[in-house]
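Appendix B, example 12.
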Amino acid sequence: MIFHRLAAVVFALALPGCVTQPKTGAYGTVSHADPAVQDAARFAVEAQNRRQTAPLQLVKVLASEQQVVAGMNYRLTLLVNENGRLRKATAVVWSQPWRNRLELTEWQWRK
């Protein structure tokens, strides 16, 4: 009897559209308000500030996604202030919180 119930659950999960979790390795949406997202956004702007001469200030997170890797990747669409001019950028921050490690792996200005 238990086997039949277990088989029914496994079969139901295998049906297309039944699983709402993202595929392994894929990005999935995460709340902009998530503290880890906010930390990653602030870190991305600080790291980019070390790479360029014009100072940046984070205005807000416009979109956020996460991807489980050997840690977590956060792909963020950010609105930043650069010398009084609002600009959008996409940043990817890799995080390993158990090692207290953050790294800006990508920064792309958007049009």
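Residues 3-20 have pLDDT under 50 and may be disordered. Residues 25-110 form a domain with the Nuclear Transport Factor 2; Chain: A, fold (CATH 3.10.450.10).
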